[in-house]
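dumping the sequnces here before i forget
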Amino acid sequence: AQRVTQPEKLLSVFKGAPVELKCNYSYSGSPELFWYVQYSRQRLQLLLRHISRESIKGFTADLNKGETSFHLKKPFAQEEDSAMYYCALRVQGGKLIFGQGTELSVKP
Amino acid sequence: DTEVTQTPKHLVMGMTNKKSLKCEQHMGHRAMYWYKQKAKKPPELMFVYSYEKLSINESVPSRFSPECPNSSLLNLHLHALQPEDSALYLCASSQVQGTDTQYFGPGTRLTVL
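..and the predicted 3d for all of it:
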């Protein structure tokens, strides 16, 4: 089965606190994983892809094939990080399978 | 131009109407996608076009009819829709199908009365 699971619908933290948004996947092939972010009233945009192993806006994500996870982390959350975050798995044919999303709320 | 644009932003239609959604990109991408996103839910793939040919149809009802007239343009023709078809319709494009990052448009918010 091809599936992406984001267990938290809503994650609320205070500014400056560490953040971890969880993502687990199920896929028999070689996974390609992405994090997309949707700020209020803005389009869905790519945040990270596991292939590039980069840090964007202070966020990082490491693919752990043993645990089939691709958790998104940031050491110090900012208020402007408040948004909906989607983990996505790309499968054969280029189809993106999205998780249910986690709404991150960063309080001042 | 490095964006995917979609028109209209909002559309309200009756169940007997015929309307079309339009998506455009000038990034030279040869793969274009339609997704449907219900409120508080993730996007779900509907169609994929690769080099102007339909590559994937995710068993979408025939009341949705995609069209790719050229490499920059993607349309979604709507006819006899149901109220449950009300959603945000997202267009995306990528360099080629399967291996490249997908870039999303802002979406068309469709309401079917």
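The two ends of chain B are 35 Å apart (CA to CA).
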